[in-house]
Amino acid sequence: MSISNTSLLQRSLASVWHPCTQMKQHEMLPLVPIKRGEGVWLEDFDGKRYLDGVSSWWVNLFGHNHPHIKQAITAQLDQLEHVILAGFTHEPVVRLSEQLSILTGLGHSFYASDGASATEIALKMSFHYWRNRGPAGKTRFLSLQNGYHGETLGSLSVTDVALFKDTYAPLLRESVTLPSPDWRLAEAGESAEQYALRCAGFAEEYIAQHHDELAAVILEPLVQCATGMAMYHPAYLQQLRDICDRYQVHLVADEIAVGFGRTGTMFATEQAGIRPDFICLSKGITGGYLPLSVVQTTDEIYAAFYDDKVTRGFLHSHSYTGNALACSAALATLEIFAQHDVLNSNRSKTKYLNHQLAALADLPVAHLRNLGMIWAFDVAPSQPGFQQHFYQAALQRGLLLRPVGNTVYFMPPYVISEAEMDWMLEQTLHALKETI
Ligand SMILES: *Cc1c(COP(=O)(O)O)cnc(C)c1O
């Protein structure tokens, strides 16, 4: 390793507190310093390349160093980098809001910079809507077992990941979780759809009894990504939409990970033919270039805040709300979708990799699953230390994957080629054989 690599690692450990990390583990496991990126590849200071099989934590859609997005941000830099959005407006934020409305059918967009802020905003808005409009007393939220909505205190309250949550339990609002419709939890002989409907039945039972206190149900449509790419049948979403309508409870779709084509449609809720009351978007929205999140809601909900009384308004803000550079990256991302039939070309990539995955047949893996540009399988039986060992074995081979427990998943940038998919699979097979 070159001097520059080594010294950067030491300086990083001495000064940066890295996310989601027990820092002491870096005594054994070195950080990976990255100098540049190009397409699906990341490159360190010695020229070693890594295929970014997790899209840099699910944010990158069209590869690193994308000329069109880069050009759009640069052009925006010459005009306006940022301006306060309270009392002021600018063209990129207006154009983005208009275009997102056309895509989701939700008329108003409220901006923040990361996903957790978006889910917090949706929860606060839902609560405040009922406070403004009645009935009174709707102050609680329902979420799903194994759901993930971010890690600030409000979003962590509706997240169900013990490792992230238990330590902070005394700081959190108590919340109720519904059984996950994850088809792996179905009983023998029960189809994914039958199980989804059974879970919707549990939801209905609870909501029928408690709707007086419930403001909203928040869920990740179709794929619970953070807890290991748990997938479920769209019938669940159709049922939940119907139940929420009947009992006057909002439905919040957290599409932070699955939005922007990840599941094969622009938004996952489209596959159920439903429109949520709130949608939370972030991650891929800027193609992975700049932090931006948005909560969109209906004009009817927006109208409940529109009043002579200041306190009936939504008095929430973040300093970088509607940042012009981030909005320009998002607009460029939407242009790529519009100009290049992305969803269709992803479909043939999906088909290709699904076919190649037959190569896993001889290995002890279960629950091979795919939706759009997400693939996952579980190593069975689960082995202690698998996550860490596999991560290192793959990294050694130049492949960046981050298993969740015993689940290995691929979530590559959409620009991955067939040859790169083959290479990714080949390295995965080697890493599995070295690990299992
Ligand atoms: C990543 C994620 C979040 C949180 O987004 P951050 O930008 O990391 O705060 C919330 N919900 C879902 C479904 C996510 O995948």
Automatic annotation (TrEMBL):
PROSITE patterns registered for this protein in UniProt: AA_TRANSFER_CLASS_3
Name of the protein this chain belongs to: Adenosylmethionine-8-amino-7-oxononanoate aminotransferase
Keywords: Aminotransferase, Biotin biosynthesis, Cytoplasm, Pyridoxal phosphate, S-adenosyl-L-methionine, Transferase
Record gene name: bioA
Catalysis performed (reactions): (8S)-8-amino-7-oxononanoate + S-adenosyl-L-methionine = S-adenosyl-4-methylsulfanyl-2-oxobutanoate + (7R,8S)-7,8-diammoniononanoate
Gene Ontology MF terms: adenosylmethionine-8-amino-7-oxononanoate transaminase activity
Pathway(s): Cofactor biosynthesis; biotin biosynthesis; 7,8-diaminononanoate from 8-amino-7-oxononanoate (SAM route): step 1/1
Pfam families: Aminotran_3
Taxonomic lineage: Bacteria, Pseudomonadati, Pseudomonadota, Betaproteobacteria, Nitrosomonadales
Matching HAMAP family: BioA (MF_00834)
Xref: NCBIfam families: bioA (TIGR00508), PRK05964.1 (NF004624)
Positions that bind substrate: W57, Y148, K283, S317, R402
Site (Participates in the substrate recognition with KAPA and in a stacking interaction with the adenine ring of SAM): C20
Amino acids binding pyridoxal 5'-phosphate: G115, A116, D254, H318, S319
Organism in which the protein naturally occurs: Methylobacillus methanolivorans
